[in-house]
Design a protein that fits this description.
Layout: E1 10-12, E2 17-18, E3 22-29, E4 34-35, E5 42-43, E6 46-52, E7 55-59, E8 62-74, E9 84-86, H1 101-125, H2 132-140, E10 152-161, E11 165-172, E12 177-182, H3 187-196, E13 202-205, H4 209-218, E14 223-226, H5 228-251, H6 274-299, H7 304-311, H8 315-323, H9 344-352, H10 358-367, H11 374-384, H12 396-403, H13 415-423, H14 431-440, H15 444-465
Helix pairs in contact: 1-2, 3-4, 5-8, 5-13, 5-15, 6-8, 7-8, 10-11
Bound molecules: zinc ion.
């Protein structure tokens, strides 16, 4: 079989060998001499020969390998450090590669279209097999298409591991594409990236000092702007910080007459056990101590970051405590539906009849289909018990008083939720949300805060749409 192949830099040396499932094409490199990579001098003096057998594009529906005879030459330059060298470079074959570049490119294209596993399956049918891992490796080694130099970029942090490791994402704002991921969010990293992209004219960023510094260092020519999302988020956070301090005062405001209030979340099906209450109280006491310490240091002028480090607290916690005039108490969580709910009436009736034996009651409702454990029944009975228990546990009244809600205040959403409501345009609030806002706005400061917040939101949103800002 004698075929003339177009194999760059080579000529076919002998007959093509036909094996059971593949062809081997013996080729020899065209050049008559080699050139020493060290000193550049040509040599025709052959030291030895060896063979390389890279896979190549299929021929005539057969897998194909080249058998390349590679010569090793003597370097005849007496001043050169090298004694021998192999002929290189071969542009169609990388050093030590097991496939020609043109085969690798085709396999990568298939991988790009079909993915690793699908590509590997298809390539078998096309007589250029490669494993799934190889296909993926070839795809990742493909050169990136040349992208136009970015002019306006947005930078923001992204979590590599939420809460512990953060990187920086760089977005081309004109093409709406992610163009790079940086390994951290420090000023030097951002500055280094910007220095390599000197055409950047605008950097949109959050308001962190690191990004500001990085942009100033790396792209002093560029204009820096805060992006809309961060502006609105910062504003809402400011409102939330203010609310932490004012929440207790706002909670004491009465509901406006005639306002509709969404039915409050169902109260806890039954009160918490004494040990749960004690644990909760202890936790509150610990946090109260932490709160006092944060307030003391903050009043003394210590920076928030230093306080966070000294006390081992999250910065957000320190900021919250530093701005709260009173210890921000958490509202009790509303309980979800209980398995016991459908049987509550029956149990209450039985207790009224005088049966306070929890195990007996549990067996009774189990007969009726209650799937839960006896523990919940025990607690249910304990809260409604009229007679002291033999084991000498405290009677119900002591526990009940501990779980009473504070005073007669109507519930107010926690600061974070309330901040959301207060910065929304009033037109998007439903009736009960509007009632909450009206209640809060009886307070003069609150009214001023919400007024400013709404105007700011409208301003930022309108700026984004290119519309004039209505001043209402
Ligand atoms: Zn040499």
């Amino acid at each position: 079989m004698d075929i003339s192949f177009a194999i760059p830099e080579c000529r076919v040396a002998r007959f093509v060998e036909q094996h059971e499932d593949h062809l081997i094409i013996p080729v020899r490199l065209d050049a008559a001499s080699g050139r020493c990579p060290e000193c550049g001098q040509a040599s025709r003096s052959v030291h030895s020969r060896y063979h390389r057998q890279p896979a190549d594009l299929p021929v005539s529906a057969s897998q194909t390998r080249l058998r390349i005879e590679v010569r090793r030459f003597y370097c005849l330059n007496p001043t050169c450090r090298r004694r021998t060298f192999a002929e290189t470079p071969m542009t169609f074959l990388a050093p030590r590669a097991r496939r020609t570049r043109r085969l690798g490119e085709v396999q990568a294209r298939v991988g790009l279209a079909c993915g690793g596993a699908g590509g590997a399956r298809l390539l078998t049918h096309l007589h250029m097999p490669a494993s799934r891992a190889t296909v993926l490796r070839l795809v990742t080694r493909m050169p990136m298409p040349d992208a136009p130099a970015p002019i306006r970029v947005g930078i923001d942090d992204w979590a590599i591991r939420k809460g512990s490791r953060y990187g920086t994402i760089v977005v081309d704002l004109d093409r709406h594409r992610v163009i790079d991921l940086l390994p951290d969010r420090t000023a030097p990293t951002v500055a280094g990236w910007l220095e390599q992209h000197s055409g950047v004219e605008l950097v949109a960023r959050d308001r962190s000092t690191e990004y500001a510094r990085g942009a100033s260092l790396g792209a002093p020519q560029a204009q820096q702007v805060a992006d809309r999302w961060h502006l609105l988020t910062n504003m809402r956070q400011a409102v939330e910080r203010w609310l932490h301090g004012a929440h207790a005062r706002l909670r004491s405001l009465p509901l406006l007459p005639g306002s509709t209030v969404r039915p409050a979340r169902r109260d806890r099906a039954f009160a918490r056990s004494l040990s749960e209450l004690e644990a909760g109280a202890q936790s509150r006491m610990r946090w109260q101590v932490v709160y006092d310490e944060v307030r003391r240091r903050h009043a003394g002028g210590e920076p928030l970051l230093a306080i966070a480090r000294a006390l081992g607290l999250a910065r957000a916690t320190v900021r919250k405590y530093a701005s709260a005039e009173t210890f921000p108490t958490r509202l009790p969580h509303g309980a979800g539906p209980s398995l016991l709910d459908p049987h509550g009436a029956y149990l209450a009736g039985r207790i009224d009849e005088g049966c306070e034996n929890a195990m007996a009651l549990w067996r009774e409702i189990r007969e009726q289909g209650y799937p839960g454990t006896s523990r919940q029944v025990h607690r249910f009975v304990a809260e409604r018990r009229t007679r002291p228990v033999r084991s000498g546990r405290k009677p119900r009244s002591a526990k009940a008083s501990a779980s009473e809600p504070l005073g007669s205040e109507a519930p107010l959403p926690p600061a974070r939720q309330l901040a959301w409501l207060l910065v929304q345009p009033t037109s998007v609030l439903d009736e009960s949300e509007a009632a909450v806002v009206s209640r809060v706005e009886q307070d003069d400061t609150a009214r001023a805060v919400t007024g400013l917040a709404r105007r700011f939101t409208a301003l930022v949103r309108a700026a984004g749409k290119g519309k004039p800002v209505a001043d209402d």
